[in-house]
From TrEMBL:
<protein>
    <submittedName>
        <fullName>SIMPL domain-containing protein</fullName>
    </submittedName>
</protein>
<dbReference type="Pfam" id="PF04402">
    <property type="entry name" value="SIMPL"/>
</dbReference>
<dbReference type="InterPro" id="IPR052022">
    <property type="entry name" value="26kDa_periplasmic_antigen"/>
</dbReference>
<dbReference type="InterPro" id="IPR007497">
    <property type="entry name" value="SIMPL/DUF541"/>
</dbReference>
Length: 239
């Protein structure tokens, strides 16, 4: 069983409207939002392997050299194949403007591969970041970390489980409003879930310190807690 940290936060966003619509249906509209806090159990990273060169082939070769650094770390930390996925690959020319000819001339090429990586042990996040950083002064290739976020592996399941609590919260609030307005709830007219908020990356920045600069200063990250929510919008018929 997953441990829940912190009290259950029950938030109900209210919007009272007694609407006269088709067939003179009057409604009370409410929004129910329920949140729970959990300890994260996975880390997701967005990284870019890049390479530069005077030719497309050279740029690709330098990109591959950076990929080998990443691949070595993936193997070292036993990251499964399904937990490392290429999200995009780009190979583009670089241009420099020639004032004499008034033309843009190709000066080189850039090869970039974006990947999404999932770490199943959150304590590996800092050491993994350190492992993909080299002390090379070469500006022809490497690995950049674009973002890092702590999350739950079963986030979708937790969000679905909270929907029932959100419905009950919305109904309870509708009852309060109905009593205050001196009307009675007749039944549900419309009920729909609202989109859940994705986890917010907690670490960003494409430029990383070199391994030589932090040989005695390993990267440490604070995972904090992950909030998961279930939210519904409900319209109740009143009489």
């Amino acid at each position: 069983m997953r441990k829940i940290f912190g009290p259950i936060c029950l938030i109900v966003l209210l919007g009272l409207s007694v609407n006269a619509i088709a067939n003179d249906v009057r409604l009370i509209s409410v929004t129910g939002l329920v949140e729970k806090s959990f300890q994260p159990d996975i880390v997701r990273l967005n990284v870019t392997v890049w390479g530069k060169g005077e030719s497309a082939k050279k740029a690709q070769a330098n990109n591959q050299a950076g990929y080998e650094i990443l691949k070595k770390s993936l193997d070292s930390f036993k990251v499964k194949k399904e937990d490392a996925q290429t999200s995009n690959y780009e190979l583009n020319p670089e241009y420099v403007y020639d004032q004499k000819t008034n033309k843009n001339n190709i000066s080189g090429y850039n090869a970039n591969q974006g990947l999404v990586i999932t770490l199943r042990k959150i304590e590996d996040a800092g050491p993994f970041l350190d492992s993909i950083t080299t002390n090379s002064k070469s500006m022809t290739g490497g690995v950049n970390v674009n973002s890092l976020g702590f999350d739950l592996d079963k986030r979708v399941d937790e969000e679905r489980a909270l929907l029932a609590d959100a419905v009950r919260a919305a109904e309870a609030q509708a009852e309060i409003l109905a009593r205050a307005a001196k009307v009675k709830l007749k039944g549900i007219y419309r009920l729909s879930p609202r989109g859940a908020n994705p986890p917010i990356p907690t670490y960003g920045g494409a430029i990383m310190k070199s391994a030589a600069m932090r040989a005695n200063d390993a990267t440490q990250l604070m995972s904090g807690e992950v909030k998961v929510s279930g939210e519904v919008a409900a319209d109740y018929i009143v009489e």
